[in-house]
Design goal:
The chain is α+β, with helices and mostly antiparallel strands. It has two domains: 27 residues; 33 residues, no CATH class. It contains two helices and three strands; from the N terminus they run αββαβ.
Length: 72
């Protein structure tokens, strides 16, 4: 087996897997967090929001879910 064939059959697929795994871990542009959204009557329910929207939700009274994924 030539060195070139070895590189093509082993190195390229390995690099492809690394690139795809890195993209999956990074999450792309769809990074969401779950917050407990407080409604007008004081009850709350969970909503998924973009990570960039979390500070605004926290400023108007929403809360992050607890360690068990429940609203406080």
């Amino acid at each position: 087996m030539t060195v070139r064939r070895l590189l093509v059959t082993l190195l390229f697929p390995a690099l492809l897997i690394v690139v795809l795994a890195t993209g999956a871990i990074a999450g792309g542009n769809n990074q969401k967090m779950t917050v407990c959204h407080v409604t007008g009557n004081g009850s709350s329910h969970q909503v998924s929001v973009d990570v960039h929207a979390v500070p605004a939700h926290l400023q108007h009274g929403d809360a992050l879910v607890d360690d068990y994924g429940e609203c406080p």
